[in-house]
Amino acid sequence: MFKTRITELFGIEYPIIGGAMHLLSRAELVAAISNAGGLGILASTTFDNLDDLRVEIQRTRELTKKPFGINLNLFPAMRPRPVEKDIDLFIDEGVGIVESSGTSPEPYIAQLKEAGIKLIHKVAGVRYARTAERIGCDAVSIVGFECGGHPGLDDVTSLILVPEAVDAVSIPVCAGGGFCDSKSFLAALALGAEGVVMGTRLVATKECDVHPRIKEWIVNAKDSDTLLIGKAFKLASRVAKNRPALTAAEMEARGASLEEVLPIISGQLGKKAWEEGDVDAGILSLGMVVGRINKVQTVKEVIDEIVNGAKQILERLKRVVE
């Protein structure tokens, strides 16, 4: 059940992909997602040097025999080294699945294809989905206004973006932004998507290596406890509504420059928040689904609940239709 072109393309049991979260998507979490039947995605930019990234790929392979992928973040500000070096390492390590994000992967398509790598590109708009198909991506994921991290600049929700993307391209589409449970999973499939991408829901799992106080904050949060910052700099980011986020938003509203705001939204401060559990220490990329998460579980429990719950919903809908 729930077999789609995404499950066939990547050789996975369920069309559920773990969002590649900077600092968080490491071997234990990635392997847990894959072992539970989904597709875990390592975040390559977490690692400042190639040796550490190689070790993490190998650790992931030790923890799971199932398919997993690696994110290739093409956004220049996020890159610790040239893109080509990462791709060479992926090929050397026999990585079979890459998720690209940030900017167009077109300059690297030929090399990835020649190596037999399957490519899913993450976008925040339908026009970019069309480009992904045109340049030869195998699949595309599209993220709506609700997503944690970078949702794009147009403030369009997943409910609109997903069916628009499905109608615009013939390659498989995955839905991101607002997906966290059986209801939203099944809704994505009803909208024409062939899978979902989940990030925030998987932060509140036992395998995610963040401080328990951060997970507790997520469990207690409301859907209004995130906000968008960075739109004035064309770097929109949805984050937890904490002290630094509110400060950054206020500075942005009164016309502060990016250089003035950067010390507030420093990645190092965010790292401290994740690791030490001080929610107000730095920026935390989290989506609106914080309001839908009410417990910390294992990854397997999350995915099993999604799949089994979706089956129950389908049975109920069959009775309604009859």
What name is given to the CATH topology of the largest domain? TIM Barrel
Low-pLDDT windows of residues: none
Radius of gyration: 19 Å
Largest sheet: 8 strands, parallel
Give a brief description.
The protein is α/β, with parallel strands linked by helices and 322 residues long. Helices cover 42% and strands 14% of the residues. It has an 8-stranded parallel β-sheet with strand order 1-8-7-6-5-4-3-2. It has a two-stranded antiparallel sheet with strand order 9-10.
Describe the structure.
It contains 14 helices and ten strands. It has 322 residues and is of the alpha/beta class. The protein has two domains: 5-207, TIM Barrel (Alpha-Beta Barrel); 212-289, no CATH class. The strands form two sheets. The chain has an eight-stranded parallel beta sheet with strand order 1-8-7-6-5-4-3-2. A two-stranded antiparallel ribbon has the order 9-10. Strand 9 (226-229) and strand 10 (237-240) form a beta hairpin. Helix 6 packs parallel to helix 7 (158-168). The protein is globular and about 55 Å long.
